[in-house]
Amino acid sequence: MITGAKRYDPRVAAALIKEKALQLGFSACGIAQVHPLPDDSEYLQKWLAAGHNGKMGYLANHADLRNDPSVLVPGAKSVIVVLLNYATSFSQQSESLKIARYAHGDDYHFVVKQFLGELLRFIAEEIAPVEGRAFCDSAPVFERRWAHEAGLGWIGLNHCLIHPEFGSFCFIGELVVDLELEYDHPIEGDCGFCGRCVTSCPTQAIQPQEFLKAEKCISYLTVELKDEIPQEYKQKLGGYVAGCDRCQEVCPWNRKASGYTAPLWKVDKSMLLMSDQDWLALEQPEFKRKFSKSSLTRLGYKKLMKNCQIVFEAAGTDGEAHT
After folding, report:
1. DSSP 267
2. Distant-in-sequence contacts of 52-56, Cβ < 8 A, 24+ apart
3. Dist CA 163 CA 182 (whole Å)
4. Does the active-site annotation cover 318?
5. 23 to each of 29, 122, 177, how far by Cα in Å?
6. For residue range 73-83, what is the model confidence (pLDDT) as tens digits?
7. For residue 247, what is the DSSP state?
8. Beta carbons of 89 and 148 less than 8 angstroms apart
9. Chain centre distance of CA 241
């Protein structure tokens, strides 16, 4: 337990926590009351049963824990949710090979959890004794749903959280604590009749009123899938070798968010300056040195270079990636 010795008022405490989160560099902060999420749990079970998790078997592990954060943190009363916007204006110099924006800088898992730790220490020192745990895409937590519950946006047709100011290019982090706080409420919002994300998805992974077919998503194919990318999708990568931003790039809610640079998340400008040939000539020792703190480590050197080769072959461009 991290301890402090002060009495606290839930309303004042919530305001102080949000103020501190913004001071640390997060883009937004909201707070939701812990409660079971049976609808989301049922959706997940049906999604898994339909096989839309592809080869991501880990998503079925501890699926029951997602229903209630108090299982992860005994006595939990509040979920403090933070957003870290990463809609930078920097672009890659490579002409054919694309890396999704989330991997343009340091691994967000560590960045978000590091500063959530700072926020937890602040709560203990300035507000009250606290038990809590920080999460960022690393535990069985319904992150987008808790962000919605905390008033930070709605879940769009592309299944991303959409914040009315920052759009969907946001990392989501949670701090589950055993303190009672003043709570926010879900905001109204939806995608209306837009559907640009649906029509722009080259693999039809997104369909209105249907499950997200993650097994078809380019992000899944280029990162999570350890097997060979099926032939039917090799011509549809659109240049992406790690992740995909197609459904977010066409989203109108992301127009005004473009150009924002999150103060906590450092962009790797040297990576963005790499040309196609720089990527193709990348050796494994250099990959390990250059990307040791990058999300690219998730797919690894061999997968990355194989993806580069697939993109060049699909485009009919001469190029030989190291394998």
Report:
1. B
2. 52/211, 52/212, 52/213, 52/214, 52/215, 53/214, 53/215, 54/214, 54/215, 54/220, 54/224, 54/225, 55/215, 55/224, 55/225, 55/226, 55/227, 56/214, 56/220, 56/224
3. 21
4. no
5. 11, 12, 20
6. 999 999 999 99
7. H
8. no
9. 17
* 296 vs 287: CA distance, rounded Å: 9
pTM score: 0.93
Q: Is the pLDDT of residue 4 over 90?
A: no
**133-158 pLDDT per residue, tens:** 999 998 889 999 999 999 999 999 99
Torsion of CA 104, 121, 141, 208, to 10 degrees: -50
Q: Is residue 60 predicted with pLDDT exceeding 90?
A: no
248 — pLDDT class (breaks 50, 70, 90)? very high
What type of residue is 38? P
Residues 153, 163 contacting (CB under 8 angstroms): yes
* Nearest in space to 88 (alpha carbons), one of 174, 193, 169: 169
Write down the catalytic residue from 40, 68, 106, 137.
Answer: 137
The average confidence (pLDDT) of the chain is 92
Q: Is 313 helix (H, G, I), strand (E, B) or coil?
A: helix
Is residue 175 a contact partner of residue 69, using CB atoms and an 8 Å limit? no
Asked if 102 and 136 count as a contact pair (C-beta separation under 8 A), the reply is no
Of how many residues is the chain composed? 323
**Is the four-CA dihedral 133, 134, 138, 142 of positive or negative sign?**
positive
Helices and strands (DSSP H and E) totals, the chain: 12, 8
Alpha-carbon distance values, 39 to 17, 42, 94 (Å): 29, 5, 43
Query: Percent of the chain scored above 90 by pLDDT?
Result: 81
